[in-house]
Amino acid sequence: MNEPYDQPGRLPLAYRNQEFLDTPDARALRILSEYLYPLSHFRKERIRDTIVFFGSARTFENGKYGHYYRDARELARRLTEWCNGLHEHSRRFVICSGGGPGIMEAANRGAHDAGGKTIGLNIGLPFEQRPNPFITPSLGFEFHYFFMRKFWFAYLAKALVVFPGGYGTLDELMEILTLVQTQKLEKKMVVILYGTSFWKEILNFDALVKYGMIAEEDLSLFEYADDVETAFRLLETGLTKYYLEPDKELPAIARSRV
Length: 258
Fold this sequence. Notes:
Elements lengths: L17 H4 L5 H18 L5 E5 L11 H19 L9 E4 L5 H11 L4 E6 L16 E4 L2 H11 E6 L4 H15 L8 E5 L1 H7 L2 H6 L12 E3 L2 H17 L14
Parallel strand pairs: 1-2, 1-5, 2-3, 3-4, 5-6, 6-7
Helix pairs in contact: 3-4, 3-9
């Protein structure tokens, strides 16, 4: 038995006792670890904020909807090149994905193509979700708790690019839109829905306004894009306005309650 004894003959130290750490009583410690471990790495790498890419794990480069993969890769590459040219002491607007295959891989790959750091917030699932090889090794994380993974998506993000996807993509999109709408995120968020025809068929936001479920001004929380150039310009313009050359009339936008 390899008990985590500090010295021979002494009782085990709780924080070295793996058997205890795996119990329900230690759940709070496991949750806290999924907050503190990424935090320590982000601080060490001087990561200030991110641009998060969401999209299907089933979208492959040479598949039926491969143009979305290629566009995500190119957009991430262009954004990373732009960010690398900002000459700031901290790393701004680092590309972040869910760490898996498909659109997530494309985003990390594009940032890697441009020689930039890139984050992968992976989560253990029984299928589909395996870390892609383009994540910066020191910025790849494996989560057990979905809500801690969502925290890190939201907390650092200044922009969100959402490519076509399924349940997971829809879940993450609605999470961010809800936080922005309810002002639980006290910062400006640039949200791009990539692929207008897909999103307007899947989500009828106009019907939500029609039935009074959201306000008409809630439609301004996001914009559509159908090509890399449009998406890049929307992101560059929004991030410059809100963060690089902030409007003095706007309220403070760098804080977050998340």
